[in-house]
Amino acid sequence: MATLGRALLIFSLLACLYGIGASLYGARAGRRQWVDSGRRAVYVLAGLLTAAFAILEAAFLRSDFSFQLVADHSSTTTPGFYRATAVWASQEGSLLLWVWLLAMWSSLVLFFTRHRLREIAPYATAVLLGFGTFFTSLLVFHLFATDPFHQVPASQVVQEGKGLTPLLRYPSMMIHPPMVYSGYTLFTIPFAFGIGALITGKLGSEWIRATRRFALAAWLFLGVGILLGARWSYSELGWGGYWAWDAVENASLMPWLLGTAFIHSIMIQEKRGMMKAWNISLVLGTGVLAIMGTFLVRSGILSSIHAFGASTLKWPFLLLIAVMVIASVGLVVWRRESLATEHRLESLLSREAIFLAQNVILVALTFVIFWITWFPMIAEVFTGHRSSIGPPVFTKFVVPLALVLVLLSGIGPVIAWRKTSRASARRALLVPGIVGGLTLIVLIAVGGVAHKPFALIMFGIGAFALACVAQEFWRGTRARQTMSGESPPRALASLMRRNRRRYGGYLAHAGFAVMLLGVAGSSAFQHSTDVNLSPGQTAHVGGYDVRYVKPTAVAEPEKIVLGAVIDVAKDGRHVATLRSTRGFYPSTDPNDGIIGRYFAGEATSEVGLRAGLLKDVWTDIHPDITPLQPVLKEGNQKFAALMGEIRRKYGTNPPPQVTNFVASSFDAAVTGVANQFVKKPYPSTFRLIVSPIVTWIWLGALIIFIGALFALWPAPELARGRIRAAYSARVGRELQRS
Amino acid sequence: MALQAVLVVLVLALAVFVLSGPLRSGGAAVERERGELADLEAARELKYSEIRDLELDFRTGKVAEEDFRAQDRALRAEAIEILHRLDRVRGEDPAG
């Protein structure tokens, strides 16, 4: 099937090139048939890449090691779920995933807009297919990446593959790439339509309305991807945090932040025809950052746990980014007069003014993160030495900006479009202001928080923002009750159903406040300690007694898992029993010895976690394997001697009973090594962390995503029809009078 | 290998058939009308949602009555203009 797979990639590239030509010719010559044919090229691309992806997926599922990619990234002992998702653990597989998602989302948007945006759509099609050409070229010509369908000669097919990188064997980590890539590829849709709008000069809000849901979906997918990555970092990496300001983490955060800015600011253009130049710049900037995010992971310029080894994709990606930036800037400058605003800001007490302020903060945040992320790489060009910038530099700038952002996320919903009177604003902000103030007073009175001023202010502002949103729901429900006479729950439900975008947005604002409260609380008031404990010993952290009860060991086909049973108590009362383990995967280097190689490969942590609404108790073990070294050395020597003896006696093809004897001896030796860890009371190093309200981060994110999904979900046709009829009747009456 | 060669040819033929579909048929004028209609209907929906938003802002106390009246009047005038344009595209007489 490799030949078919390769042919599908070549056809994909041809479909892209044809689609670009047909769309541009159709648009320039006014030949609608060619435009339609160009659009169909995107559907064809989606079909071809789906088939190519399915072929590769099937090879992974049946462990077909004649495919080089399968042999390098999977094995027969890799569990089924990870085998299915190992496709995108490789460079080639993830590039294929990227372009496949691009084709699928592009097909969807072009199908929905097939009767609209007649002038813009052909150019958007060409831009989307331009991205398709770029990625399929990388795969077809494999100048910069290897062929995903590369097959080894039958004589060189291995019996067992190398397996999936151990660090990626975590369920959410395998869903994380499709989520992030969906975000990136969906962000190219507003980019493509923005370019189309600039080329045609059709700079009204029609193209924004047509792609708005896709922009929101991009924001949602990327957000979910970022969150899954943070959760993986917290549960799997064994350092105790969820965000390290790693360059690849930042690469996904930047388009998300700029995307947050533009999904707010495009509302200003939709409603008021304002800020067209600003909006289009944000849309184009987000598209560029989405490609830059892919570039940072795929180019090999980073040494990050997220980056995928050395790669030679740097130059093609830099070229693509340069083309995108130059084209974007050039088009915006060319159309600067058409991008002039239709209305002026009427009042500083208006929602558009709040959105503008929020936009400035979000752009400033993106700029700060961009600069600090890229600074070490830029400095390296001039000095030849890459400096390292740690989280304190980021937090110094990010924390004050985040405080203002949460404040604005509260004020925004209570202020009306165009203008709000001072009296209305005072009324709207009074109760939330009191709630925020009271929160501050109570926290200071309770004590223990005054020495963390930023966290304290965040709690006050967070409470204010939550109160603002709660008040909006309450006032909306009351208004609905007055109009319809419904009971409060029914009034709330129908209010939300009829105003999905507005109340979905408010929910997202509440989630954002909850999430940042979690970030502030967990980072400011975390207790952490690294201790060396033997079984039976106890350490104290954050008011908890943590006792190392006993060691555990399991020898699995793929790894040796050493760990500990840990008892957590507070004031003499049992709180939880935690199990923390570290899995040791064998290296493939024969010099490490047959037994010793188990401790020479990669190792991953499974943390012990007791998550609570108010506090998380988190434990991680690093077993000291030094005392095992003599046993490993002895095992290596014995097996080397045994294998030498077998080779002398039977050559390279020993009889099955000998092979079985070696295999069972090997299993017994590995189990014996693992049991040594349990039998002898070796000390182990533990990292113990007690963090308050970490759960609020996940909870806040969940609320954000529910809100976004609610805003994204189309209203049922029946409900829309009813609303349309009511307003048509009303405007119809006006029509008769006019 | 022979099966793969057949599949390659079939995929290519299918792709060419799908791509050439629009070139084998007409209907451009109808398309133009449908496109304009869809754009105007989307504009009408947006205007209605603006009117609804303004109403909700007024009922939840964010907008003073005087401002509400003025803005509501302006939005309804814009909605009427869109309805006029819709009628023109549909070839209907707005006067009835």
Write out key terms for the chains shown.
heterodimer; A: 738 residues; alpha+beta; 5-stranded antiparallel β-sheet; 4-stranded antiparallel β-sheet; B: 96 residues; mainly alpha; 0% strand
Any overview of this molecule?
- The complex is a heterodimer of chains A (738) and B (96).
- Chain A is of the alpha+beta class.
- Chain A has 21 helices and 9 strands.
- A 5-stranded antiparallel beta sheet of chain A has the order 2-3-4-5-6. In chain A, strands 1-9-8-7 form a 4-stranded antiparallel beta sheet, covered by helices on one side.
- In chain A, strand 7 and strand 8 form a beta hairpin.
- The longest helix of chain A has 33 residues.
- Chain A is globular.
- Chain A starts with a helix and ends with a helix.
- By secondary structure, chain B is mainly α.
- In chain B, helix 2 runs antiparallel to helix 3.
- In chain B, 21% of the residues are buried.
- The model of chain B has no long low-confidence stretch (mean pLDDT 81).
Outline the secondary-structure elements.
The complex is a heterodimer of chains A (738) and B (96).
Chain A: H1 2-29, H2 32-61, H3 68-73, H4 80-85, H5 91-112, H6 120-141, H7 171-200, H8 206-236, H9 247-272, H10 276-298, H11 314-334, H12 351-383, H13 391-414, H14 422-446, H15 453-484, H16 488-498, H17 500-524, E1 527-533, E2 538-541, E3 544-555, E4 560-570, E5 573-584, E6 603-606, E7 608-610, E8 615-623, H18 629-650, H19 656-679, E9 684-692, H20 695-712, H21 717-737
Chain B: H1 2-20, H2 28-59, H3 65-90
Helix pairs in contact in B: 2-3
User: Total number of helical segments of chain A?
Assistant: 21
Averaged pLDDT of chain A, please?
89
- What's the gyration radius of chain A in Å? 29 Å
N to C succession of SSEs of chain B: HHH
Give the H and E element order of chain A: HHHHHHHHHHHHHHHHHEEEEEEEEHHEHH
Structural class estimated from helices and strands of chain B:
mainly alpha
Number of beta strands of chain B = 0
